[in-house]
Amino acid sequence: MYNGEKIYAIITAAGSGNRMGMKTPKQFIEVNNIPIIERTLNKFYDLNIFDKIFLVIRQEDKKFIEENLSKKFRDIQIIIGGKTREESTFNAIKLLDDDGISVFHDGVRPFVSKDDIIRALDFFKGKNAVVFAVREKDTVKVVDNMKVISSPARKNIFRVQTPQIFSNKIIKEAYNKFYGKIEATDDSIFVSKLGEEVYIYESNYNNIKITTPEDLYLADLIAKEEDYYENR
């Protein structure tokens, strides 16, 4: 319960990690001696504000989770994901009550700030959709057939991250209406299609998604700094 509302966290970690090019799924790769998914779960578990934390995983990873993480994170509910990110998320959404709000997060974004989660939940008051994002540093070009079509003003461009926070009623309605009908690279696209306003919570650049081997170099630096301050 947070601010009088039930609150849920949905951590999606059902990817295979093909772009990482390793046998180990990316969510189980260790960064400074701690698996990525464990680092992510720590952030949400330590806040102690969630009525339920759902962890969406692949069927073949269930044994690893039960043997290595279930004892530490006793109250987490495991959900088996689908073939796509949207299907995995939908499997969790089906279990939500209509009341309350839910915080959706990528399992391979382990450096989200706990303070940012709390501040974003406060910012969420009176809204139905809030997404984490950072300002784009580079100039962006819209291209068609390798030809520049337009150059959007950089001040209006944000790179979307997770967490993404939604009222349960709205995200359930959005998925029930648009799942399988349009492509959505993030959940807020479905919500926008409903005509709902989506607000930006300005996050920080450390909140990276670990997807490729190059990301691991930066992740290792961030993890060492984070662990140093956590353990002082």
Q: Can you describe what's shown?
A:
Its EC number is 2.7.7.60. One of its GO terms (biological process) is isoprenoid biosynthetic process. This is 2-C-methyl-D-erythritol 4-phosphate cytidylyltransferase. Keywords: Isoprene biosynthesis, Nucleotidyltransferase, Transferase. By secondary structure, the protein is of the alpha/beta class. It has a single domain (7-230), classed as Spore Coat Polysaccharide Biosynthesis Protein SpsA, Chain A (Alpha-Beta Complex), CATH 3.90.550. It is 32% helix and 24% strand. The protein is built from seven helices and eleven strands. It has a seven-stranded mixed beta sheet with strand order 5-4-1-6-10-7-11, sandwiched between helices. Helix 5 (168-178) packs across helix 6. The protein is globular. The model has no long low-confidence stretch (mean pLDDT 93).
Number of helices: 7
Principal-axes shape call? globular
Distance between the termini: 30 Å
The CATH class designation is Alpha Beta
**What structural class do you assign from the helix and strand content?**
alpha/beta
CATH superfamily grouping = Spore Coat Polysaccharide Biosynthesis Protein SpsA, Chain A
Enzyme class: transferase
Pfam families: IspD (PF01128)
GO molecular function, one term: 2-C-methyl-D-erythritol 4-phosphate cytidylyltransferase activity
InterPro entries: IspD (IPR001228), IspD/TarI (IPR034683), IspD/TarI_cytidylyltransf_bact (IPR050088), Nucleotide-diphossugar_trans (IPR029044)
